[in-house]
Every structure is written in structure tokens, then in C-alpha cells.
Amino acid sequence: MINRLIDRIMELEAPIVVGLDPMLSYVPQHILDEAYRSRGENLEGASEAIWQYNKGIIDAICDLVPAVKPQVAMYEQFGVEGMKAYVKTINYAREKGLIVIGDVKRGDIGSTSAAYAAGHLGRININGKDYRGFDEDFITVNPYLGSDGIIPFIEVCKQENKGLFILVKTSNPSSGEFQDRLVDGRPLYELVGEKVAEWGGLFMGKEYSYIGAVVGATYPEEGRTLRRLMPKTLILVPGYGAQGGKAEDLKHYFSKDGKGAIVNSSRGIITAYKMPQYANYGEAAYADAARQAVLDMKEDLRKAWSNK
């Protein structure tokens, strides 16, 4: 799967993943009205609105980008009905040729990590027949529990030809409370990055490991260091756009061949119609606004990507 993701990035000249992180406040009124009319003003109706909203976004951008990244919490807030929308979103994105990165940030020890891995990346056997749960292509994983929490995921990735993105230096303002703490004179995120590179050696693709890393766009100097420490690691870069990350800060996240990173944008794309520069599209054409936002992001990133 890592080979396919790298190939699609290069084919489309788009190191971009669209974050499908919907909130009800993002959904145009006409979609909400129809969902509530058909399913009721309840969790089922809200989840139907989220699903229909996602479908419109996917239809508009599927030929422009290699991947989407649904954030599971945005679906979990609606309970079981929301998780149904999450599964519909994954399945539809795959039907449209997109690679799916499940932003689930799971991580535990032993059998619990194995269960998370089976549910999101693998399969469960019931009376001799295999069943898949959520079936993402990649998921995000928290490494705080160490190798006990990561190796079960890697084992399932090997079985299923799928991959991980492990949190290393996250984009949020308070990430430094732990991630920047010095351990033997070095920031913790550097030690985690070195460990990710080590884990990556356990499952390599053609050029990059199936075991990637999450490094926020809001910390470009840290990104430069981590690119050096993880030369064979694909970096998933959140924090571009709405969180303050700028394209000119991202050149060091890419390798010299122009590969090595994929940049996420969520609100900047899926709520583009609410932004002044796309206001002329209006609510009814929210998906067209999202498409234009992807095209503009692609052009913005070209300065970081093509100048390597």
C-alpha cells in the first residue's frame, strides 16, 4: 500500500490528503434539512447528513488527490450511527479510488493493540470465515506505550499489506509539554523519531517504509531534523492552513527526490465555502468550493514540493 500511495502522489503531482473531519456546523443547511426529513432530528439524521456531506466532498476531489483521512472522533460523537457513517465514508472513498488513512490514534499493549489492529486494518475469523471491520489502508497510532503497543500493529500490517503513521511531533500548541522534554540532552520527539525509523526497517516498501510518522507543519525546524533522522519514512504533515502551517515551511519535510511527505488539510478544504475567497460558491456548491481549495493548495505546495 505504501508503494501505491507514493505512486499516486507522483502521478497526481499532489502530496495532499484531505481530512474528512466533519462537524454538523460545517454541513450546508439543505443537506441537514433532507437528512432530518428522511431520518429524523436525531443521531441517525445527523449521521446521514455527515455521510451525504462527505460523499459530495469525495466526488469533487477524488481525481485530484491520492488519499483522504477521516478523523474517527468526528463520527464517534454520534455513537453507533456515526460509526456507520464512518464505514460508509471509508467504503465510498475506496470505491472512488482513494487511499484511506484512518485518523484513530490508537495505542495500547499486547492483545489490546492486536484487537485494534484487527478491527481497523485486519480481519476477524468467525467459524472459519473472515470478516473485516473498518478496513482502512493506514491508521494513525500513538507510540506512548512503546514497542509492546506498536509491534502488534506492524504484524497485522505485514499480513494485510497496510501501514501506520506514528505520532512523533504533533501540530497542537501544547505538544511540547511532553514531546520537547529533554531526555539525555535530546528532545523526546527525536528519540521517538529514531524509534519509528527502527520500526520502519521491519516492513519496507520499494523506497519508503510502511511505517510512517506524523510531524506537524507548525514546527518546521523540528520537521527538518526529523526528516534527517527518518530518511525512509513517509511523513504525514497535519497543521497546514487552518492551524497556521505555511507551504514555504514544508520544503524540509520532503526528501531530495520530492517524495517523502503528504500534507493534510481538513477545514481548509471541507469548509472552503465558508471562507471569503470562496464565498461566491455558496452553500449549494460547497463541494465545488472544496475542489477549488484543493487546486489552490496543490499550487501553493508546488513551491515546497517541486523545488527539492
Protein model, in words:
- The chain is an alpha/beta fold and 308 residues long.
- The protein has one domain (2-305): Aldolase class I (TIM Barrel, Alpha-Beta Barrel), CATH 3.20.20.70.
- It contains 12 helices and 12 strands.
- The protein has helices at 2-12, 29-39, 43-61, 73-76, 79-95, 110-120, 147-160, 176-179, 188-200, 220-229, 267-270, 286-305, and strands spanning 16-20, 67-70, 99-106, 124-126, 129-131, 138-141, 163-169, 182-183, 186-187, 211-215, 235-237, 261-265.
- The protein has an 8-stranded parallel beta barrel with strand order 1-2-3-6-7-10-11-12, surrounded by 7 helices.
- A hairpin with a 2-residue loop joins strand 4 and strand 5.
- Helix 3 (43-61) packs across helix 12.
Write the layout of secondary structure elements.
Layout: H1 2-12, E1 16-20, H2 29-39, H3 43-61, E2 67-70, H4 73-76, H5 79-95, E3 99-106, H6 110-120, E4 124-126, E5 129-131, E6 138-141, H7 147-160, E7 163-169, H8 176-179, E8 182-183, E9 186-187, H9 188-200, E10 211-215, H10 220-229, E11 235-237, E12 261-265, H11 267-270, H12 286-305
Parallel strand pairs: 1-2, 1-12, 2-3, 3-6, 6-7, 7-10, 10-11, 11-12
Antiparallel strand pairs: 4-5, 8-9
Helix pairs in contact: 2-3, 3-5, 3-12, 6-7
